[in-house]
Amino acid sequence: MKNIKLLLTLTTFAALTSCVNGDDYGTPDLSSECVSETPTKQVSDITSIAATDNPTQYMADDVIEAYVTSSDEGGNFYKTISLVSTDAVNNSNSSIGFTIPINAYNLYTKFEPGRKVYVHLKDLYYSYTGLTDSYEIGELYVDPTYGNEIGRISAVKYENVILRGCDKVDEDELVNHITIDQVDDSYMHKLIEFENVQFADGSLGTTYFDPTNTAGTGTNHSITDMNGNTIDLRASEYASFASDPIPSGSGKIRGVLTKYNGSYQFMIRTLHDVQLNDDRFDVDFYPPIVGSSLAFNGSLFENFESYATYENEFPPYINDAAVGSRYWQVRLFSGNRYIQATSFGGNEDNRTLFIVPVDMTSASTFSFRTNDGYDNGSVLKVYYSLDYIAGGLITDATLVDITSNFTISSGHSSGYGTFIDSGVYNIPSGITGNGYFIFEYVGNGASGPTTTMQIDNITIN
């Protein structure tokens, strides 16, 4: 692909970066080499007119200001600076990240993270580059095959058009604390930090640059959160930490978001960005599906007729595959819709919870209907909890077993029965406040039981 764009993936070349040592932003004292200027344009003024893959020369004598987010101190960034508009200090959703390629090394000695810079735009080129989904400012590079592209500003020229500001903020003021599943293009070239993450199992026992697992001149390591969301962390062959082992713990990782050919690449600057000091956690690839409109009501009638068949997302409720991969699902038979759980046809342990929020103070009774199929053992229990946290671990909650108050459909070993009223639970007057009723299905696809259980007409009055 295009030579200059490959460089803009921030992962390539640079044996010369071997002169970069250490994992600390130990910046020389350049306090006398700084300026304070008044910008004449905002970053948004430039990005709003940037055409995709069509570098355009900027003719006016305008200046923009921005803060640096990247650093080439660790050798993972190569001849480029990532920046963000100055409103990022206020955690503005409208802040904009962009990148400037520069034909120089050790840029961190002048342009360290948090440093304000002034960019003199006259005669530079700007564009939105589709391959990297990035706003870019630089000089014009004419690729013999692909035509005009944003290229590096020369080592002679850049010192006259990118000026080191005297203002510097703590980089913590620029950090976006987000989760992996919140990543999108609005965070490009911004400084982001993930908490409660770890390297995926496949990276353990390897190094940041793994010669047996390369993509170009770097290695992509998957990092994951507790719910199994992942993103690639990119490490260059030429990074000063290339041969360091991948840590096995969990914690937080900070870096700059980049992208190449449709795939996000999370770029750390030095090993100081990796703070995995906690014990490793188990990844829950089937997390609780927490409804988007949970409400604690004192009355309810749910017959599931408004849901599509096989639906497992319920806005008023929580559906939790606490063990295994199976959730409660909506099913349809003879024109009637209901929810169903089963371990039949599987080979794993299952503990599947359907959780209904309720105002225990105003509610008086709780009832439902059940039906069983191909019964080879008891699988359903019913609880209430007053300390369960929506979306949290069910093992952290106190569950009070009220199953004995109900008659659960059973005994249909060679087919399905019909729905029966399972009784009424009178909520004791001493149970007050917000709480949950919890239907728990426990089965095992390999060893049993694999009984199918169906629930309908959940009623709270």
Report on the structure:
The protein is mainly beta and 461 residues long. The strands form five sheets. The protein has a six-stranded antiparallel sheet with strand order 17-19-22-27-24-25, with no helix packed on it. Strands 18, 20, 21, 23, 26 and 28 form a six-stranded antiparallel sheet that branches. It folds into three domains: 3-171, OB fold (Dihydrolipoamide Acetyltransferase, E2P); 176-278, OB fold (Dihydrolipoamide Acetyltransferase, E2P); 289-460, Jelly Rolls (Sandwich). It is built from three helices and 28 strands.
On the 0 to 100 scale, the average pLDDT is 93
CATH topology of the largest domain: Jelly Rolls
CATH architecture of the largest domain: Sandwich
Number of domains: 3
Helical residue percent band: under 10%
Under CATH at level 1, the class of the largest domain stands as Mainly Beta
Q: Structural class, from helix and strand content? A: mainly beta
Helix tally equals: 3
Strand order of the largest sheet: 17-19-22-27-24-25
Name the overall outline. Answer: elongated
| Rg (CA only) | 29 Å
| DSSP strand content | 35-45%
Low-confidence stretches: 1-26
* DSSP E strands, number: 28
Distance between the termini: 66 Å
Largest sheet, in brief, is: 6 strands, antiparallel
Signal peptide: 1-22
Keywords: Signal
Organism: Flavobacterium sediminis
Domain DUF5689: 39-274
Topology:
Layout: H1 3-7, H2 43-47, E1 56-57, E2 63-68, E3 80-85, E4 97-101, E5 115-120, E6 125-129, E7 134-143, E8 147-151, H3 158-161, E9 162-168, E10 176-177, E11 191-199, E12 218-225, E13 230-236, E14 250-260, E15 263-267, E16 274-278, E17 289-290, E18 300-302, E19 318-323, E20 329-333, E21 336-341, E22 349-359, E23 365-373, E24 380-385, E25 400-401, E26 420-426, E27 434-444, E28 452-460
Parallel strand pairs: 10-11, 13-15
Antiparallel strand pairs: 1-6, 2-3, 2-5, 3-4, 5-9, 6-7, 7-8, 11-12, 11-14, 12-13, 14-15, 14-16, 17-19, 18-28, 19-22, 20-21, 21-28, 22-27, 23-26, 23-28, 24-25, 24-27
Pfam families: DUF5689
Signal peptide: 1-22
Organism: Flavobacterium sediminis
